[in-house]
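Can't paste images in this forum, so I'm doing it all in text. The chain is below; anyone willing to post the predicted structure tokens underneath?
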Amino acid sequence: MVQVGRRLHRRPVWARPGTPARRIVALTLGMALGGMAIAASSLWWGAPATPIRLSWWELVPAVVLADELGLHLEVRGDAHTLNFSEIPLVLGCFFAPPWAVILARLVGDAAFQGLRRKQRGVKLAFNLANFLLETTVLLLGAHLLLSGRPPTDWTSWPLMALAVGCADAASMLAVSCAIRWHGGKSKTWSVIAAGAATAGVNVSLALVTAVVLWDDPTAVLLLLVVLIAISLGYRSYTSLAKRHAGQKLLYDFTKVVGASMSSETVTDQLLRKACELLMAETAEIVLFDRATGRPAYRRRLTDWHATEGASGTVTALAPAEADWSRLVRQGHAVYVGRHDRGPVQASLREELGVRDFVLAPLLAEGAVLGTILVANRLGNVSTFDEEDCRLFETIANHASVAYDNSRLVEQLRAEAEVRRHEALHDALTGLPNRALFAQQVEAAIRAGGTAAVMLMDLDRFKEINDTLGHHHGDLLLREVANRLVGALRRSDTAARLGGDEFAVLVHDLVDVGEAEITAGRLLEALHQPFLVDELSLGVGASIGIAMIPDHGGDAAALLQKADVAMYEAKGAHDGAVVYSPERDSYSPRRLRLAGELREAIEAGDILVCYQPKARIADGRPVGMEALVRWRHPAFGMLSPDEFIPVAEQTGLIAPLTTYVLREGLRQCAGWRRGGHEVGVAVNLAVRSLLDVDLPDDAQEMLARAGVPPEALTLEITESSIMADPSRTITVLTELAAAGVRLSVDDFGTGYSSLTYLQRLPVHEVKVDKSFVLRVASNPGDAVIVQSIVELGHNLGLTVVAEGVEDQAAWDRLRSMDCDVAQGYLLGPPLAAPEAIAWLDRRRQGANACPEGPTVTDGSGGLRSALRVVHG
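Text version of the structure:
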């Protein structure tokens, strides 16, 4: 007879609610009713004619002994019990009435299953119903087939074997249905094959015993000895076979974990092999936190045999969980069998939520790395024992070495990954560096489609870095990086190429217009001031855009084209510029200018020109604004828009401003000695505004030139003030206290005019020429200029209008009570000798009306002279 024992769970599958449980209960009732129906009919069959008669109580020990001598075979997920129950049943068919055989089978198996195997509830009821059905089917078959034939008649032998086969088939069919209904996969054909072989042996032994018992009952004792010897011998054989199989599995396990260098692979293979080796339902690994020594990670494997590709699942551990880890502190494996009834063992099983288990520590250099556990031994009978514990400890030792090695390898891999990351990322911002960005650009080129490479350079960063120090500069760069990343899509890339230079790669664009929109979004992200160590710092940016694939076939070419466009944007103060081939010729020229600018400043090749300013009421000159040009030996006279960006980029804007300031004061002193009571105006860069030594330096230069402080006007832009309002206001306050006049240039175009105008110790505001050019023809511009004039006067400030180019504008400004005009109507930027001549002519002309732009400096004049420092 074959019994099939499936994997056991914390809660018996028989007691679980749902359709499978109801089916099993129905099957149990059906088998019981069928067995009882056959048993009832057997009352009318009569007792067999036999020389001896066995009573039910004599058959009970035989039933129990047959079960006890059974052999337990574990194959993958199923545990098969092969016993000798057919022997007492066959003997009962020949030597006892049917009711005695049925009663003996039920009593004997109820005692064995309930007391020896601890079965309870529906499971015990199912097995007893199955035994009842099997027994009654066998009795019915024997009654119908044998027709009273004695065992000594050889024709009864195949008939009895057929009856036993029918009974076993009914039993195995019921067991297979039960297993499948609660989610298992019974190896039906392997069970039938093993059961048929066992049934054949059992029937043969039973028939031999019946023949001996028919002729000489005392000879049965010899057969009993043979039976016990066969059972013990087979058990020894299966034990040896199991040990051999275990050694092979252990060898396979060591090969697997030895070949793997991944902790996750080691874990999954370890759990799978541990379950297979010890025939357990569940295995799990728990790793301890090295700092606290408490369990921190669990990986559990269940249903390991169901799918070859199954892997473990990771679950979190609650703080109070896994107190059983104290067991492993003793340094060796422990086990608790399912039949251990001590309070400690019961408590451990309940704590772990299993029926039986083996637990072993994972050790490395004397420290406990974690634990490995297998639980719920497969089958109805067997459980873990001392031999399993020793085998499992061997597994744990191999696993400990594998884990230690894998952790070392993973640590080396992690360090290599860190070094790789550092080689491809900027250490300050964490953004990709130039090397990684170039790789990503190359990948975008290979992928095809339209993309954009943008090169970005920050305005005024060098002044901030030089004035406040590298610490503030580094913090500012980090904040810039964060804003760039926040303004981009997840698919796009921002990189830092070095210094204050950033690059952006934008994928999947429709056209160049979409690239320009993205660039505008980046500029907008940098528009608001940055709060760095409680300092409000303002920076702008210039962006050059090169398109993939239009502007280059490799990363180097695209970056070079984007660089050309970026300098175009910086020179034109245009924010973002798309690369144009016709502008590319300026790139080598700009490189040459950058290399020669310092020498030009030192050699005096930078010319300072002066554009007149006069009172609108009477045309009297009140001052000159100092503007610059570069007389280059190869390129001729260069306008500021070509070399001022170079000065800003190379850090030469500070010495250039100082040069202009000294030269302007020297010329102002000459004008005043010639009887012209006019002043000079010089633009200041951000770096100068953040320099706390500027007030002292300015007073020193004024004293050296012999010019009174009120003759010097320093022009500043609103955006430059925003680099650090508190600090610039302090510097400006000291300058004002020294008597220097302060002017807000390009007023009306900034983003903080009204916020800071009252706080600044300024003396005048200059209306931006974009409003003045059309003041006589555009009512909107006229309203803006009128508002600025009234605002300035209400604050006690002088109002200067830039860009006055015709008499209509002059007259319109005079009607608005604007104070001072500057523009081509008075004159273009003039060289120093021509500026003096202009002043002389103005004094001779009684200053009553402005003079047209008839005086030049030999270069044809500039329609729009750019200043030394651009906002």
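Residues 434-584 form a domain with the Alpha-Beta Plaits fold (CATH 3.30.70.270). The chain has a mean pLDDT of 78.
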